[in-house]
Specification:
CATH architecture of the largest domain: Alpha-Beta Complex
Bound molecules: manganese (II) ion
Strand content: 15-25%
Largest sheet: 6 strands, mixed
CATH topology of the largest domain: Creatine Amidinohydrolase
Strand order of the largest sheet: 4-3-2-1-5-6
Number of helices: 10
Helix content: 25-40%
Distance between the termini: 46 Å
CATH class of the largest domain: Alpha Beta
Radius of gyration: 23 Å
């Protein structure tokens, strides 16, 4: 619980001249309460904090959330106004990156306090979320472990004739059996020519001899995501396929080796990109090298050509270079890692040498 209290306190301490923060985004609410929620509100005043939920969530939240005052509302506007009155809140900030214009207008009209659109509040929450606590790291590890176990099991099932959709359905089923609350995104299990589509959608295409198969998969455990990509070969793989695989593998390993506190996301991307470009395939690597992973599948920091993020110990980042040859095949290899002072710890334990089934 202490983790949640310190997050709330950090926001209370950053209120400045304002009296309170009204948090409306589901992800921020989960981050501050530990409860995955929709249609709730968190109010953080200088002395006290409140979690407002409706009847549907009341029993579960009252049982599991002990570090914040839980308020069950019938009409959220009335409840928020009551709390504002009780804590004397006249000037209240909201997250500028989470509140839509219509919500902002509605809250401004109906609430007793002056509602202030605050990029600083969004930045503060972002700054807290970007560095993971040990508790969050455990959940990220567990999410990866679930995805890995499902992946290893599904490899026994993958053979010529099995369709992309069957592979993805089985992976999702296995992840849920192993404790995932859901998949982290629509699983990418694509074969043959479709591996040249970085975000291809599984179809009725069946695995054929000579195919590459790309698995880009992840599970969610207690709100936290995992993200891993492996490319494998089926039967008779060409020299060109091996060559491209080895270039991506080299780019992946060198970029991984570059990860440590103090290095920029730009440099991690550049390490991977230079290897792919020097090999003559730069224009076939059309996405960024990586992103953070946490309560969201894509979050800060970013490792790309426009990134200004500097890695710090406790951040997560993926390293996922790829080469995609249109109408032929593609290769991507991805691990998610935890940045440490002098390097990184990888969440994944699945080998990355090319395997042929
Ligand atoms: Mn990714």
């Amino acid at each position: 619980m202490n983790g949640y209290i310190s997050r709330i306190k950090a926001i209370a301490d950053s209120l400045g001249e304002n009296d309170a923060a009204l948090i409306t985004s589901d992800i921020s609410i989960t981050y501050l309460t530990g409860y995955q929620h929709s249609e709730g509100y968190v109010i953080i005043g200088k002395e006290d904090a409140f979690f407002l939920v409706d009847f549907r969530y009341a029993e579960a939240v009252q049982k599991s959330v002990k570090h914040i005052n839980v308020v069950v509302f019938e009409n959220y506007i009335d409840s928020i106004n009551d709390i504002f009155k009780n804590i004397g809140a006249k000037s209240v900030i909201v997250e500028s990156d989470a509140v839509t214009l219509s919500t902002y207008k509605n809250l401004s009209e109906k609430l007793s306090a002056t509602i202030i659109d605050s990029p600083e509040l969004s930045n503060k929450i972002g700054e807290l979320r970007i560095v993971k606590t040990s508790d969050e790291v455990e959940k990220l590890r567990k999410a990866q472990q679930i995805a890995e176990e499902a992946y290893l099991e599904v490899l026994d099932f993958v053979k010529v004739g099995v369709t992309e959709k069957e592979i993805s359905a089985r992976l999702e089923y296995l992840m849920k059996l192993k404790g995932a609350e859901r998949v982290a995104f629509e699983l990418i299990t694509v074969t043959g020519k479709k591996t040249s589509l970085p975000h291809g959608v599984p179809s009725d295409n069946a695995v054929k001899d000579g195919d590459f198969i790309t698995f880009d998969i992840g599970a969610v455990y207690d709100g936290y995501h995992s993200d891993m990509t492996r490319t494998i070969g089926v039967g008779n793989i060409t020299d060109e396929q091996r060559e491209i695989y080895n270039i991506v593998f080299d780019a992946h390993l060198k970029a991984l080796e570059s990860v440590k506190a103090g290095v920029s996301g730009f440099d991690v991307d550049k390490t991977a990109r230079d290897i792919i470009t020097d090999a003559g395939y730069g224009k076939y690597f059309g996405h960024s090298t990586g992103h953070g992973v946490g309560l969201e599948i894509h979050e800060a920091p970013y490792a790309g050509q426009r990134s200004k993020d500097i890695l710090k110990a406790g951040m997560t980042v993926t390293v996922e270079p790829g080469i995609y040859l249109p109408d032929k095949f593609g290769v991507r290899i991805e691990d998610t890692v935890l940045v440490t002072e002098d390097g990184y710890e990888t969440f994944a334990s699945i080998p990355k040498e090319l395997i042929i089934i």
